[in-house]
Design brief:
Blueprint (H helix, E strand, L loop, with lengths): L4 H4 L2 E2 L1 E3 L2 E3 L6 E6 L2 E10 L3 H20 L2 H17 L1 H12 L3 H21 L7 E2 L6 E9 L2 E5 L7 H12 L3 E5 L5 H13 L7 E3 L4 H10 L5 E5 L2 H14 L2 E5 L4 E5 L5 H13 L9 E7 H17 L18 H16 L3 E4 L18 E4 L6 H4 L6 E7 L2 H9 L3 E2 L1 E5 L3 H10 L4 E4 L15 E2 L12 H5 E9 L15
The structure holds 2-aminohexanedioic acid.
2-aminohexanedioic acid (UN1) binds next to loops.
Length: 504
């Protein structure tokens, strides 16, 4: 676990047109280890408008050549990137734990999600990109094909520093777009490692460009830039709605993956041990910092006390610490601002007279004080209208809401502005299928927690969580391609659709 800090704290530039360059303004910002804030992982280009302009210009120049590269050739690059990710999985996972804090087993999972996406997308390089559709006229051939959008901007969060960039970059690149990638300012180093891998895998210069820095200083410029035809964004509702407003004004495509207020429903016939295992993993995995994290537990009254007691007993045993330590169950949260925000929700919950069962404080004992640690927190006696039951906390806090029966539980689960991931535990098949019908979310789980999506299925949410797009699966191509509809008339005469249609 010894880390040569001095060796790591080098200065990193932006990737523009195949070269690594400092920001034009010459400024940098630091990435630090959330488990030990004194550990600086590196200094990174603090980009602004002119850097974004350089990156977009490089992408515009490179895109047509990349789009002309046959798709199986583009897929080869993605396949090679997947192999490099696989070879470097352990190093990348350790780096991710140091930069972002999640425990090492989860960091390995995050890198694996990138590897899975590479393999899946590489396979798509030889799949159909459209269909032949019958014409109503003779001697006329009609078909559709997916074509690249052009240059797209991908803005990614810090909580899945490898997986989410791979969800966006890999389908965007496979489809023949050039990309300007703006990773979260908390996790630039993992993003740089991914850009290096894609470059090493054979991506031509300028096809992928990376600019590091802050949202307001360079992310916003990317969204505004006229040559960027589409933005794919994962992050907060607040920023997502601003981006959508800008894209609306500029007539750009935008796909949003925003927050969640995900719930597990525990019905009276649920396997309680299984439900407690699921709640623990869903709520406290990644220290609750997933869009899909379980932040509400809606529990039917007959099992409320038994479930809550078991849950609290398990939560009290969770060990906080550095994610590189194999003894650690829950790592730090990303930064001091988030730490304060998470704690402010404890105060809000208490003011709303929710009952704090465990946790509820910033952990400062011993070395924990050197990082951003929050004690895993459970609130009981929570009512659906309380802010702690409605607003995304994005930390290790979960609230328990009682429900009289399954109907009420589903109503409560559906009763937020978000619609990412909902789950229900039951042993009754009919109850499970009725829940599948009635839970209002992009992702529904039965007898599994709200986290754990696999890359070959669509990922995304309804209501405030998104704007109708889905990442991953084949739906990823809806984000990153345009449809072209082609009519070829080889009759040698004017044939008018709807008018000259032959009867037989
Ligand atoms: C996110 O929370 O931002 O389903 C992504 C999951 C992960 C992806 C989560 N595979 O929890």
């Amino acid at each position: 676990m010894s880390v040569d800090i001095a060796e790591q704290a080098t200065t990193h530039g932006n990737l523009i047109g195949g070269e690594w360059r400092a920001a034009r303004g010459g400024e940098t910002f630091d990435s630090v280890n959330p488990a030990r804030r004194s550990e600086v992982l590196g200094h990174f280009a603090r980009s602004s408008k002119s850097d974004v302009e350089d990156a977009v210009a490089a992408a515009v120049a490179a895109q047509p050549g990349w789009a002309r590269t046959p798709m199986p050739g583009r897929a080869e690059v993605i396949a090679r990137a997947g192999r490099l990710l696989e070879e470097r999985k352990e190093d990348l996972a350790q780096l991710m734990t140091r930069e972002m804090g999640k425990v090492l087993t989860e960091a390995r999972g995050d890198v694996q999600e990138g590897i899975d996406m590479a393999k899946y997308m590489a396979g798509h390089g030889r799949n159909p990109v459209g269909e032949v559709v019958p014409s109503e006229l003779r001697d006329k051939r009609c078909f559709t094909e997916r074509v690249p959008i052009g240059v797209v901007g991908c803005i990614t969060p810090w909580n899945f520093p490898m997986a989410i960039p791979c969800w966006k970059l890999m389908p965007a690149l496979l489809a023949g777009n050039a990309v300007v990638f703006k990773p979260a300012e908390d996790t630039p180093l993992v993003a740089i490692r991914l850009a290096e891998i894609l470059t090493e895998a054979g991506l031509p210069a300028g096809v992928l460009n990376l600019v590091t820095g802050y949202g307001e200083e360079c992310g916003a410029e990317l969204v505004e830039h006229p040559a960027i035809r589409a933005i794919s964004f994962t992050g907060s509702v607040e920023v997502g709605h601003q981006i959508a407003a800008t894209c609306g004004r500029l007539g750009k495509r935008v796909s949003l993956e925003l927050g969640g207020k995900n719930a597990i429903v525990v019905t009276s016939d649920a396997d309680l041990e299984l439900a407690v295992d699921g709640a623990l993993w869903g709520a406290f995995g990644t220290a609750g910092q997933r869009c899909t994290a379980t932040s509400r537990l809606v529990v039917e009254r007959p099992v409320l006390d038994a479930f809550t007691e078991r849950l609290v007993a398990r939560v009290s045993q969770l060990r906080l610490g550095d994610g590189l330590d194999p003894q650690t169950d829950v790592g730090p949260v990303i930064n001091p601002t988030q730490l304060r925000r998470i704690h402010s929700y404890t105060e809000i919950g208490q003011k709303e007279s929710a009952r704090l069962l465990v946790g509820g404080s910033i952990a400062t004992e011993g070395v924990l004080g050197e990082g951003n640690f929050y004690n895993p927190t459970v609130f009981a006696d929570v009512r659906p209208e309380m802010r702690v039951a409605q607003e995304e906390i994005f930390g290790p806090t979960v609230v328990v809401l009682p429900a009289d029966d399954t109907d009420e539980a589903i109503r409560i689960a559906n009763g937020t502005r978000y619609g990412l991931s909902l789950s229900l535990y039951t042993r009754d098949l009919a109850r499970a299928l009725r829940a599948v019908d009635r839970l209002e979310a992009g992702i529904v789980y039965i007898n599994a927690p709200t986290i754990g999506a696999e890359i070959q299925l669509p990922f995304g949410g309804t209501k405030w969580t998104g704007n109708g797009h889905r990442e991953a699966g084949t739906t990823a191509f809806d984000e990153f391609t345009e449809w072209k509809t082609v009519y070829i008339d080889y009759s040698g005469r004017l044939q008018r659709a709807q008018i000259d249609t032959p009867k037989e």
